Amino acid sequence: MALLSNSPSCSQIIDSIQEHLPALYFTFSRGKTELLAEELSIEWDFLLPHEKKQVNSIISQAELLQPGLFGSRRQRLKEIITQGIAYHHAGLPPALKDLVERLYENRLIFVLFCTETFAVGVNFPAAATIFDSCRKWDGREFRGLINREFFQMAGRAGRRGFDPVGMVYLRIDKRFPEQTGFYNESLVEPVRGRLTISPNTVLSLLYWKTDNEINRLLDQNLAVYQNNKEGRRIRLELIEIKEALSGIGSVFCDQLDTAYCYMFRSNLKKEFRSLSRKNQRLRIGTKERKEEIRNLLKRPQKKCHHRPCSEAKRKINELTEKKLRLERRIRTLGNHSRDYERDFNGVWDLLENLSYVDGRELSARGIFALHLHVQEILVTEMVFNGLIRDGQPALVAAILAGVDFVPGRDDYVVPCPHDLREVETLCRSLIRSGMPETMCVWSSLPGALASAWYQGCTFEELQAMTNFQEGDIFSVIRREIDLLRQIERAAGKDIELVSQIEHIRLKLDRDEIAVPGI
User: 3-state SS of 368-387?
Assistant: First the structure.
């Protein structure tokens, strides 16, 4: 691993490591990937004439399958790809991400600027990985990368059969040298299991499982197993600490913690100095305590080799502090183990209050929600309250686009042409009835996009309606299409509702949004 200091530009970095290409250049913002790729393309062109010809051929084939692949926003990307440079992030449309990945796989991209999503689930190794920074925004604050995040990305360096060693470079901003962490692979944080108790989880267990099977699942899931395993390890540590403490105690004589003991006298002297400070002198009892200390210190000190006692005392303090930390952790693990049963019963109570279940029996609402996997109660209420069943198709498309959508601070979409206030009223009503806000996530923001797409507008027209990037628009519509499939399954033999939902789904699943093979 090499550290690149003095805030070098990306061009300077590539110049200094050009023997170790191709490289994945990780940044933590979409805009930065594009900016750096364009900056590098001004000075560098990695492809030979025959390689450029190969790239242009692959691009032409991709554009035949997906007309308007680059659109108006990505023409610059099309140019820099022919120089062996590209960028990759979640804001790109899937077809464009696929093209960049194929070119990289064919060794026609020498520097790929990417966000950390490229390191998750995609196995494209490089000769080197470069970190533009080791700090990221996690949705709440800027923080340093943890070991697991760092090694997930750094681990892309080193191609089997090509590179004897994978090179990792960290760019350090000279203004903030502390921003680069010192990472240790042996300290990679473990992946922790976490069973999410959603309405679908509770409905599925009540419908398909016996009481014993439900209890077994809550008691024996991965998170509980990990907690129990950690608990056993901590208890063994506590036994070792107890044994160590009992062994250390044999060092002390019977005059420990008396005025004859060197360590006790040292603490008395520290206390006396503290009481002599200006802010302590006038406090009640200070004068009397100082006189008491003087009298104690007049007693003769025992002549002994006190260093073994001092070392033993220090060790006892360390072990005692560690013991307290481990005992707190044991209590925390115990609370977490009980969380699943409490969460399960809490959601079960909520479902009973909303008439989704009666004991273990599922009502019509419960059977419907059983087939949904996102915002189950909210979507079911939309159907049973008539918002979906009685709504015009374009309105329904607008409503469902907002399910489970959390807008960003700067997200913008033109106002929706439909009145969505009934949905807002429904959400407020559900929350007042005791439903957690996390189970009632909906936004009116993307409604105009889904409605316009249903009515046949082009993808470029959609882009003109929002500041969303192409991949974000694609994600909104594809998530709605998946939700529509869930509603179709939930509708079962309700032919009218199935027909209505299928019609909307097929109208949305077209052109750039359509995924081949689905």
Answer: HHCCCCCCHHHHHHHHHCCC
Residues 6+ positions from 9 with CB-CB distance below 8 Å: 39
Q: Higher pLDDT residue, 113 or 271?
A: 113
Query: What pTM was computed for the model?
Result: 0.70
DSSP states of 96-119 as a string? HHHHHHHHHHTT--SEEEE-GGGG
One domain for residues 351 and 273: no
Q: Are strands 85-88 and 111-114 parallel, antiparallel or unpaired?
A: parallel
Regarding whether 299 and 421 lie in a shared domain, the answer is: no
Closest CA to 27 of 114, 88, 91: 114
Taking each helix axis from N to C terminus, what angle separates 393-401 and 447-454, rounded to the nearest 10 degrees? 140
280 and 321 in one domain?
no
Q: Is 95 in contact with 70 (CB distance < 8 Å)? A: no
Tens of pLDDT, residue by residue over 278-304, are: 666 667 777 777 787 788 777 777 777
DSSP state of 143: E
* Average pLDDT of the segment spanning 219-237: 69
- Based on the fold, state whether residues 481 and 497 are members of the same structural domain: yes
**Tokens encoding 87:** 């960028």
SS3 4: strand
Which residue range(s) make up the domain with 18? 2-187
Read off the amino acid at residue 116: E
Three-state secondary-structure class, residue 184: coil
SS3 149: helix
Residues 275, 392: one domain?
no
Dihedral of the alpha carbons of 380, 381, 382, 388, in degrees to the nearest 10: 60
355: left (phi over 0), alpha (psi -120 to 50) or beta: left
Closest CA to 306 of 262, 350, 344, 270: 262
Residue 366 falls within a domain, yes or no?
no
CB 183 within 8 A of CB 172: no
For the stretch 438-442, contacts whose Cβ atoms lie closer than 8 Å and that sit 24 or more positions apart, written own/partner, are 439/198, 439/199, 439/375, 439/376, 439/377, 439/378, 440/375, 440/377, 440/378, 441/375, 441/378, 441/403, 441/404, 441/405, 441/406, 442/375, 442/378, 442/402, 442/403, 442/404, 442/405
Cα dist from 255 to 251, 289, 301, whole Å: 12, 22, 10
Q: CA–CA separation, 260 vs 297, rounded Å? A: 8
Among the residue ranges 284-293, 318-327, 491-500, the one predicted with the least confidence is 284-293
Nearest partner of 195 among 328, 341, 330, judged by Cα: 341
| Peptide bond between residue 308 and the one before it cis (omega within 30 degrees of 0) | no
Q: Are residues 139 and 8 in the same domain?
A: yes
- Please report whether residue 308 resides in a domain: no
Residues 70 and 182 in one domain: yes
- Same domain for 161 and 12, yes or no, is yes
Report the domain count for the chain. 4
